[in-house]
Amino acid sequence: MARFVFRLQSFLNLKEQLEKNVKNELGVANQKLQQEKIKLRRIKEDIDTYSDKFRSACTGSIEPEKIKELKIYLEHLYNNEQKQKLNVKREQQNVDKIREKLISIMRDKKVLENLREKNFQEFLSELEKGEQLLADELVSYKEATREKA
């Protein structure tokens, strides 16, 4: 019996392996993005906390040294927030880039799978034609042997 062989099977296997690797890479990048977002959220929480402390230090009995310390620390937190926003943006761009790479690989793989399916259907059609031809020859042979007998 004939066996179906897809000429580009090794290429399809390669695309499947690449897809698997890029999915793993995307997972790692997503985790890193989430970690950076958590860091940003913590900085924002600290800003809220120290803003409240700064407001309360500015009311009631005023302690200039404490106010100055809180102001300096808040400025530090705001600078950290800006840096962290850039980190989050950079990680988001990395995730987007990897996602585009994955989409491209998946498209290529889908094209190969469709080609494989088309080739397989053609193979089945040729196989069926061969079987039909064999059946026709068998019937013709039987008819010819009946007429001779």
Summarize the structure.
With 149 residues, this protein is mostly helical. The chain contains two helices and no strands.
Describe the structure.
It is a single chain. This protein has 149 residues and is an all-alpha fold. It has a domain at 12-109. It is built from two helices and no strands. The protein has helices at residues 9-58, 64-148. The longest helix has 85 residues, at 64-148. The model has no long low-confidence stretch (mean pLDDT 93).
| Count of individual beta strands | 0
Mean pLDDT, all residues: 93
Please mark out the parts with pLDDT under 50 across 5 or more consecutive residues, or reply none.
Answer: none
Order of helices and strands: HH
Counting helices, strands and paired strands, the structural category is mainly alpha
Range of helix content? over 70%
Question: Tell me, what's the shape?
Answer: rod-shaped
What distance separates the N and C termini?
Answer: 33 Å
Topology diagram in text:
Blueprint: H1 9-58, H2 64-148
Helix pairs in contact: 1-2
List keywords for this structure.
149 residues, 2 helices, mainly alpha, rod-shaped
